[in-house]
Design a protein that fits this description.
Blueprint (H helix, E strand, L loop, with lengths): L1 E2 L4 E9 L4 H19 L7 E5 L7 E9 L10 E4 L7 E8 L6 H13 L8 E5 L12 E7 L2
Antiparallel strand pairs: 1-6, 2-4, 2-5, 3-4, 3-7, 6-8, 7-8
């Protein structure tokens, strides 16, 4: 259990099926980087996805970047914030390996939260610490973060 990974963000939010998730996230990350460039700003962290539900046919998902301060949105790119607020606590684990092998990490994190007598808010964040286009699938690093109530 630790403090939240970021407070402010710029992101694109939509509903999509899990099979279209890579295309959506690629589009969202590109759109946010373009908006940051127009504002003369840089991301304050790695790209992330926030999952507001886990319905694989109709994911309510947001893709974006943490930013150092609140920034104005434009079009589909809008300001966002870490779901549980600036003083939030989270439970997190680092998954190393292909994205399709993350379910055991989710299960372990859920078990840890239950053992601690805590409850997740229902939002899940994945922070992508390296680029799968630049490393082998076995070296991909994803920080899985559950905000806690």
């Amino acid at each position: 259990i630790q403090s939240q990974p970021f407070e402010h963000a710029l992101a694109v939010r939509t509903r999509t099926s899990v099979d279209k998730l890579p295309q959506f996230l690629g589009h969202a990350f590109g759109a946010v980087m373009q908006r940051l460039g127009a504002l003369g700003e840089q991301p304050a962290g790695a790209p992330y996805a926030a999952y507001y539900n886990l319905d694989m046919q109709s994911l309510d998902v947001e893709g974006g970047f943490a930013v150092a301060r609140p920034l104005p949105g434009e079009g589909a790119v809008q300001p966002s914030a870490f779901a549980a607020g600036p003083s939030a606590q989270v439970a997190a684990c680092l998954h190393i390996g292909p994205y399709d092998q993350m379910p055991p990490a989710y299960e372990a994190l859920n078990a840890f939260i239950a053992e601690q007598g805590r409850e997740p808010t229902g939002v899940v964040y994945e922070i992508y610490l390296n680029d799968p286009a630049e490393v082998s699938p076995e070296a991909v690093q994803t920080l899985i973060v559950f905000p806690l109530k």
